[in-house]
Amino acid sequence: MNIIFEDDYILAVYKPSGLATQTSKIGEKDLFSEAKNHVNGNYIGIINRLDQPVSGIVLLAKSSETASALEKELQSHNMAKYYRAEVYIDRIEKREKLSVDITSDLSLFPNVLTDYMCRDANNISRICASDEVNAKEARLEYAVRSIGEQTANLDIHLLTGRHHQIRVQLANAGMPILGDKKYGTDSSVKYSMLKRIRNVSLCAYRLIITHPVTKQRIDLKADAWFT
Fold first, then answer.
1. Which residues are bridge partners to 111 per DSSP?
2. Contacts made by residues 104-110, CB under 8 angstroms, sequence distance 24+
3. 60-63 contacts: CB < 8 A, separation 24 or more?
4. Residue 69, helix vs strand vs coil
5. Which of residues 77, 94, 117 is at a domain's end?
6. What is the SS3 assignment for 195?
């Protein structure tokens, strides 16, 4: 287990793509079980979950009180979440308009996506109308860090936490994430297969939190990219 930060109250670890955050499947490894073993069977609570094919930082609490405080921070959007994604530029007109966001301040995200999303019963989320039943606003900011012949690397600041939000919004914007079979297009899936990309090229590389006990802001970072 790759530990990023640990003290008496919280544990932050790096989850590789392909490993479930938590699973009920017998015999399948998951991050929760590894963390439970790490704390010798004592309490451990997952604060932010990542999809199985996604890599990045997962935050865990070592007590129910700490978990409650961190969950409140997460729900109030005071926990800053940053991701990196490698996307396929599916439409020619989209590729022609795309440009690298050159700035000396990497904390700036000049592009904003605002949509409404609905979650269906089959564990699929989709863009929907704002007046549709159970519709929820989804917002994220992103910066284009580099552009290839058919791909681009994005830096993303997630402003809301909807189910599969980044994957759905980027696909809807003509930028499906490489390796995403669920929300990708035929072209992006074929390109991913050609490049032998098996998991979703999305990494939760940075998490800024307020420590539930010391109240200090902690900037958690993962050096890893896509695995």
1. 142
2. 106/143, 106/155, 108/143, 109/141, 109/142, 109/143, 109/155, 109/156, 109/157, 110/141, 110/143
3. 60/10, 60/11, 60/12, 60/13, 60/35, 61/9, 61/10, 61/11, 61/212, 62/8, 62/9, 62/10, 62/11, 63/9
4. helix
5. 77
6. coil
Q: How far apart are CA 208 and CA 14, in angstroms?
A: 15
Are 167 and 200 in contact, with CB atoms under 8 Å apart?
A: yes
32-73, pLDDT tens digit by residue?
999 999 999 999 999 999 999 999 999 999 999 999 999 999
Give the number of domains in the chain: 2
- pLDDT tens-digit map of 76-102: 889 999 999 999 987 655 666 677 776
Tokens of 146: 């580099």
Segments forming the whole domain that contains residue 24: 2-77
33 phi/psi in degrees, rounded to 5? -65, -40
The pTM of the full predicted model, rounded to 2 decimals, is 0.91
